[in-house]
Specification:
Rossmann fold, alpha/beta, eight-stranded mixed beta sheet
Length: 409
């Protein structure tokens, strides 16, 4: 009987194969069906939203869960916003702010990030600027420090709160703007501040205490990690606080106008620092409050960041026809790291030119929640090992000192 079933299956399979081989239309239809089904599987199932919970008490596993945060939270295009949480097995906590660009005028607001644009790859001038809604890439696509399946990951047993970013305002805006571009209007909800407040209110209610708290972020989220860590430290007064800012830093005279006029961040009152030209450095060194906080700051950059260099050029209206805009950004980054390293803050840095692509004169953008977490090195030390030694082992380690003294080409 079993043999008959196998013979029958073989006959049917052969008939299908013959039909595909001899009939181009059938073959094309079959290939199309496979591609469509594959896309639907990836989009709806693999990158589907985790199940919803209202509180940590509802979570009995170590997988990702979605938390809806109410009507006060919204994405740039007016669609819904939510956060993601994963319960750990330790009493330590990661609060990680996602990246995803920014927009500040009609030109940038008219160019949200689209999947087809990502497929096209690197161009010297940015063609897309920000996420205007929650992307399905997260949390399923998170790797690196967020990868619980990696047994070598020193943070796999930590509680993990992932703060998505879909407001184009470095997580700090509090306004709705109507931008105009080429005769069209674009309505953008810069609602980052309210979204983050809702996230942190939930975190405080569900994680009332922790042994260690790491406030981390990448790209736009790297600025947010520096913006919000003082407030978080004020809540977790009995915890050890760490702030990891990965892929951060742009020098421009426009920061104050963009944050406080365009995005209505009200930075002096809500963020507690004075804005000058280097927003990350300002958040650490130009604080306007007198509170004494014990925070260990960790700062990572690649020397020719393929994304921050282009955002810097866009903000400063700098030509991208030569490598000058890249070299200027690298020089500014090294100068900022040097000042921060000499400031007296509890500060350690990771600076590398690992993976430099000579033809493009670029390096990777961020390292924390992607494949480069366990690949990128500085002074022969893996990025993942640098974070572990600073946070898990409480060692003070900075890497890339020699690059600070090397003149960019």
């Amino acid at each position: 009987m079993k043999a008959a079933k196998w013979i029958g299956a073989a006959v049917i399979g052969a008939a299908i194969a013959y039909s595909l081989f001899t009939n181009a239309a059938v073959t094309a239809a079959a290939i199309g069906a496979v591609l469509v089904l594959g896309f639907l599987y990836v989009y709806l199932i693999y990158f589907g939203r985790p199940n919803h919970v209202a509180s940590l008490d509802e979570i009995t596993d170590t997988g990702w869960h979605t938390v809806d945060l109410g009507e006060a939270t919204v994405s740039a295009d007016g669609s819904s916003y939510a956060m993601f949480v994963r319960r750990g097995t330790s009493n330590n906590l990661v609060i990680h702010f996602s990246g995803g660009g920014a927009c500040w005028d009609g030109e940038t607001a008219s160019r949200p990030i689209k999947p087809i644009g990502v497929v096209r790859g690197y161009t010297r001038d940015l063609t897309m600027f920000y996420f205007n809604s929650l992307t399905r890439l997260f949390p399923a696509g998170l790797a690196g420090m967020a990868n619980r399946r990696d047994t070598t990951n020193a943070f796999r047993d930590w509680n993990f709160v992932f703060v998505p970013y879909s407001t184009g305002d470095l997580h700090v805006g509090d306004t709705t703007n109507t931008y105009r571009h080429n005769g069209k209007t674009i309505k953008i909800h810069h609602n980052g501040r309210n979204n983050c407040k809702a996230v942190l209110d939930w975190v405080y209610a569900n994680f009332p205490s922790a042994d260690k708290v790491m406030v981390s972020g990448e790209s736009a989220g790297a600025w947010a990690s520096a913006f919000y860590v003082p407030q978080i430290a004020d809540h977790y007064t009995d915890s050890k606080l760490y702030c990891l800012s990965d892929g951060v830093g742009i020098v421009t005279e426009r920061w104050r106008d963009i944050l406080d006029t365009t995005w209505k961040a009200d930075s002096a009152r809500t963020l507690g620092f004075d804005i000058d030209t280097d927003l990350y450095e300002d958040a650490l060194l130009h604080r306007s409050d007198a509170a004494a906080r014990t925070i260990k700051y960790l700062h990572s950059n690649t020397l020719y960041d393929d994304t921050l260099t282009r955002f810097g050029a866009a903000l400063n209206h700098t030509s991208t026809e030569t490598d000058g805009f890249i070299e200027d950004w690298a020089a500014n980054t090294k100068a900022s790291i040097t000042r921060l390293n000499q400031s007296g803050l509890h500060y350690n840095f990771f600076l590398t030119d690992w993976g430099h692509k000579p033809k493009k004169h670029t390096t990777e953008h961020t390292l924390t929640t992607n494949e480069f977490y366990n690949k990128c090195t500085a002074d022969g030390v893996l990025f993942s090992a640098w974070i572990k030694r600073n946070v898990i082992d409480d060692e003070d380690l900075s890497l890339g000192h020699e690059l600070l003294s090397v003149k960019v080409r």
